[in-house]
Amino acid sequence: MPGTVVDIQDMTVKIKKKTILDNLNLTIEEGSFHGIIGPNGAGKTTLFTTIQGFRPPSYGDVQLLGQNPYPRNIDLLRVIGIQPQRSSFFPKTTLKEHLSVVADILGTSRKRVDHLIDELDLGHAADTKVEQLSGGERQRLAVATAIVHQPKVLFLDEPTAGLDPESRRNLVSLLQGADLDGMTTLYTTHFLDEAEQLCDVVSILDEGKIIVTQSPRRLIAEAALGSTIILPRALHQADILAEHFGTELVRVTRDGVEVRAQDTAKLFVDLDRLNIDTGSAQVRDGRLEDVYLAQTGKDFVA
Ligand SMILES: Nc1ncnc2c1ncn2[C@@H]1O[C@H](COP(=O)(O)OP(=O)(O)OP(=O)(O)O)[C@@H](O)[C@H]1O
Description:
Layout: E1 4-15, E2 18-29, E3 33-37, H1 44-52, E4 59-64, H2 74-78, E5 80-82, H3 95-105, H4 110-119, H5 135-147, E6 153-157, H6 165-177, E7 184-189, H7 192-198, E8 201-206, E9 209-214, H8 216-222, E10 227-231, H9 238-245, E11 250-253, E12 256-261, H10 264-273, E13 282-285, H11 288-296
Parallel strand pairs: 3-7, 3-8, 5-6, 6-7
Antiparallel strand pairs: 1-2, 1-4, 8-9, 10-12, 10-13, 11-12
GO molecular function: ATP binding; ATP hydrolysis activity
InterPro entries: AAA+_ATPase (IPR003593), ABC_transporter-like_ATP-bd (IPR003439), ABC_transporter-like_CS (IPR017871), ABC_transporter_ATP-binding (IPR050763), P-loop_NTPase (IPR027417)
Protein name: ABC transporter ATP-binding protein
């Protein structure tokens, strides 16, 4: 049976008297890819920094690999990997020099550097200066830097933030295929489609509390969300749709009006009766985004 890597019991974190995390309970299993999902300001980064031992809980208890991470626990810092922010790079070194220096500091072999450059598809940029790397290359270098010493626990805080859609897709497929050596990964993102693809388990964080922890597929299945029909030409009829189907099943998005239904065929019949133009309608199955709405009563706004 997998062990527990993170064990949080009744933990509250206050910053300047404001409660950021509110009586939180969470366990993270060894070897899992665990996503923390929540909107801007939900407290995801605060949760990470508390688990990493950079801030103490105000109340309650947090254990990382069976130890107390605060005050800074050097034994733990050696076995965790934190994706560095842009400012932590050596800008004038090449990508390979940068990774080699980090590997030397952490006592890891140069062979591991070559392996990671290959695995994260960075071979073409190995001799490029860090300051000249593209956004996608920098993010991949950040991941390589975090895992160079084969940590037991990896923290990825929005690894695809700021990337164009193609670079994002690339990094997600690299993370999916990456040999993370049985590491336990804690991950945050503003992209729920990405979380659905990558995570074994997600926790939804809302107003400082974790309201559910479960595998994305099971959450979607258990929520019995049915399908969503997207009606790009019905924006001017949103009120009629909301009145007929109920506001909880209808929402207006950039792409048109979305209506959720268990029985898609019947919904089309009802839409015809209401004279709604279904000509360019699209149908999609339930997604994590819909679970978020069902669980929190709010649209996911990153
Ligand atoms: N040092 C600080 N001083 C004051 N308030 C803070 C501090 N650090 C965090 N906060 C507040 O705590 C709340 C949670 O912030 P946090 O960065 O953990 O959220 P987040 O979910 O990671 O957000 P984002 O998705 O925008 O990165 C926010 O309201 C933020 O303003």
